[in-house]
């Protein structure tokens, strides 16, 4: 793997995978999300600590840590030489993933049965209230949703260049449903984000989706079935597929992921996709506290267990 600099953008190969492919390929993996959640807790993570906290095999953990250090999200620092052992420190690039993780957390709590009881609450330190993050435009500060935003393809865009070459993976069935099962149903496959993105951009029919993305017909069929079963998509009377309110709300996660990818993975030809807010200015996904309306920062968010809050 090419080692990516942790605190400056990676310059990608001309004609190769673009920022969308890198953002999706890195984040659409449950083990990556779980490891980065631990890494963003505010202190370095040691291998043994991660192994104790996560239901992950040694081989899988070692592979994910190699990937995350190779992509510049974590930095390995030696803390003992006999035996040689390392702790993993989140980099500036890795720290930038917090809106994606918080966006997934908020979406799962809102829409997935049982997750409101399972996932932690988030307290916004600036106002002291329990926060439910809401999507805003970081350029103008206004609230935003899928209806307000359109996409403009850039010089490094093509559907082929936007699909990760390595299939994204999720936990096996033997490990249970997982912490982000509903999210991974939408993005945990190398074709999934392309298909859900095409639907968000206005393509709704099976044949059009297949032609546009280049995905094999069985994959399109399987993904549409998975999206529908998850509650994010509904079949229309004319044979098309349309986002439900649940599916539309997932746009916030996609927008945060795209912003992170565009910041840290740069194609020499130019950007792959630019989001435009209200046909007026570039859209920069930003999460705000629903209680005080301030923009959230990763350092200002505290995890609280639902049980602890309920006992107050």
TrEMBL record:
Q: Does the keyword Transcription apply?
A: yes
Alphabetized PANTHER family for the sequence: TRANSCRIPTIONAL REGULATOR, MARR FAMILY, TRANSCRIPTIONAL REGULATORY PROTEIN
Q: Which GO terms describe its molecular function?
A: DNA binding
Return the InterPro entries for the record.
Answer: HTH_HxlR, WH-like_DNA-bd_sf, WH_DNA-bd_sf
Q: Which domain of life is it from?
A: Bacteria
Q: Give the source species.
A: Labedaea rhizosphaerae
Which intervals hold domain HTH hxlR-type? 13-116, 177-269
This protein's name: HxlR family transcriptional regulator
Is Aminoacyl-tRNA synthetase given among the entry's keywords? no
List UniProt keywords, sorted A-Z. Answer: DNA-binding, Transcription, Transcription regulation
